[in-house]
Structure to design on (289 residues):
């Protein structure tokens, strides 16, 4: 082969390789970290970029889009020694790729570990009930706790969400038993209060009935008293009044006797007044002297 032609081909190949190594097109959503002779030199943004071939090399290709980090579930012990299971998801964005690749060996693993330890610390300062009902509070504390730390790595924490926060299986069973016992206690208290209210109402009913009965007797007595007074006024003497009352009571007693079940015939004396006087001895004449 002609040596001149070989030289031309070599030069063309060298130019092609040089252009290939010196021209870098960075796609949107990425940044390239360039090292010169093994040392950080620059960061290439999206678009056409030129670097010095053979001296500059693209060491890292870093995405600038939001990254979703799934934080695995872990057991966390609350302040009152309850075991709960929780996990989370973090949304991060790399704003300084050179810090992310040179500041930490594996920024994904580092952030994941940081979120887990911070989550254990935050929930460890809370009681079980607070931990189960304070998801937003935990989220805010978690974000504040790790934002400053990962800022040194050129990473911004967009947000972090608590996916699950629930008691462990044994704790769940204990809580269900406790809830069932509490419901049974409330049912017993309600039943006892109902029986107490019923007994009170019955006693108050009996008391009210007794009062009304006593009042009725008083009214009847007053009526009898007034009736006797009226009869005494109408009668000429007290003896006449007494005879009248005794005769009325005698007639009432005979009527009641006649109305009893199984009673047959009641015979009344023809001279009722004389009979009553005979019973009381009112009909006897005073002995003559």
């Amino acid at each position: 082969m002609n040596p001149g032609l070989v030289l031309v081909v070599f030069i063309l190949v060298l130019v092609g390789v040089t252009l290939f190594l010196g021209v870098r097109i960075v796609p949107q959503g990425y940044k390239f970290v360039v090292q010169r002779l093994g040392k950080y030199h620059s960061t290439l943004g999206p678009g056409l970029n030129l670097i010095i071939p053979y001296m500059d090399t693209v060491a890292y290709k870093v995405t600038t889009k939001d990254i979703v980090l799934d934080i695995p579930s872990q057991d966390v012990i609350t302040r009152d020694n309850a075991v709960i299971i929780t996990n989370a998801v973090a949304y991060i964005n790399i704003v300084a790729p050179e810090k992310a690749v040179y500041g930490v060996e594996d920024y994904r693993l580092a952030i994941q570990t940081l979120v887990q330890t911070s989550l254990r610390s935050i929930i460890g300062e809370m009681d079980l009930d607070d931990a189960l009902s304070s998801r937003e509070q935990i989220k805010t504390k978690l974000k504040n706790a790790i934002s400053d730390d990962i800022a040194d790595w050129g990473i911004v924490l967009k947000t972090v969400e608590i996916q699950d926060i629930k008691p462990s299986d044994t704790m769940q069973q204990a809580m269900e038993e406790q809830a069932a016992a509490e419901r049974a206690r409330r049912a017993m208290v309600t039943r006892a209060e109902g029986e107490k209210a019923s007994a009170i109402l019955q006693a108050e009913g009996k008391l009210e009935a007794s009062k009304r009965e006593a009042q009725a007797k008083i009214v009847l007595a007053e009526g009898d008293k007034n009736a006797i007074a009226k009869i005494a006024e109408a009668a000429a003497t007290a003896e006449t009044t007494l005879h009248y009352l005794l005769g009325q009571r005698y007639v009432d007693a005979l009527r009641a006797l006649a109305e009893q079940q199984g009673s047959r015939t009641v015979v009344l004396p023809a001279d009722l007044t004389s009979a009553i006087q005979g019973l009381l001895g009112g009909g006897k004449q005073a002995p003559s002297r």
